[in-house]
Amino acid sequence: MKKIFVFLALLSFSAAAGFAQESRQDASLSWTALIPPHVVGNTVQQDGTIGVYGALASYRYMLTPRSALELNYQYQQNVEKYITSFNSIRVHARMQEISGAYIYNFTFRNFNPFVEAGVGGYIFSPIKDQKTTDLDAKQSTNVGALYGGGIAYELSPSWDIRVEYRGIVVKAPNFGLEQYRTNRYYNISNPAIGVAYHF
Predict the structure, then answer these.
(1) In whole angstroms, what is the distance from residue 187 CA to residue 9 CA?
(2) What are the residue boundaries of the structural domains of the chain, listed by start?
(3) pLDDT tens digits, residue range 164-190?
(4) d(Cα 176, Cα 79) in Å, to the nearest integer?
(5) Which residue, of 7, 51, 71, 130, is most buried by count of CB atoms within 10 Å of its CB?
(6) Are strands 25-34 and 51-62 parallel, antiparallel or unpaired?
(7) What is the CA radius of gyration of the chain?
(8) CA of residue 48 relative to chain centroid, distance
(9) Is the CB of residue 101 less than 8 Å from the CB of residue 74?
């Protein structure tokens, strides 16, 4: 009987040690680009420059070996351009994202493809500098959807490299300038590449 108890105790200890060593969380930092589309509505044409100086910080918690929840914060800048039959303006914009997503992972040796979907808050704030031609522009805050997919390559049990395509579907911001409201939703392409640390 003692041998059975000792065996069960050792089995429980080894299972607990294995669970403790398993990485269930990771944090990542990525470089991002922001590629807004052309949108037309209410006789307003809206275009934006490509933002290339963005950063995305993410935290993932693994619910199962394949499923995870992710929290994101992104900072990006670009210039939004509005054209009507009477006027045209530019707004140097700061975009911030606070989002949450569900991640589903696949595993093929060191390659781990994944897909994601979620929701977020998107804050578009004007930067009052020489790139902004209408100083009446104000902050716009919208709720949007996030989707995407990518692949992580495992460098070691603690580190991987991630490349992903993220799509953001959100109402086109007008910065409180009603004459430049398109009333359209658009899809922002948001590719990212970065590194993740598992702990």
Answers:
(1) 55
(2) 24-198
(3) 999 999 999 999 999 999 999 999 999
(4) 16
(5) 51
(6) antiparallel
(7) 22
(8) 19
(9) no
Q: Which of 189, 84, 194, 197 is nearest to 146 (CA)?
A: 189
Nearest to 74 by CA among 157, 12, 164: 164
The structure tokens listed for 182 are 């398109």
Distances (CA, A) of 5 to 19, 44, 171: 21, 76, 63
Phi and psi at 86, nearest 5°, equal -110, -25
Amino acid at 102: Y
SS3 24: coil
Q: Sign (positive/negative) of CA torsion 163, 168, 174, 180?
A: positive
Instruction: Give the pTM.
Output: 0.86
Considering the domain delimited by 24-198, tell me its CATH architecture.
Answer: Beta Barrel (2.40)
Nearest to 163 by CA among 147, 149, 145, 151: 151
- Amino acid identity of 13? F
pLDDT tens string 109-159: 999 999 999 999 999 999 999 999 999 999 999 999 999 999 999 999 999
Distance CA 150, CA 66 (A): 14
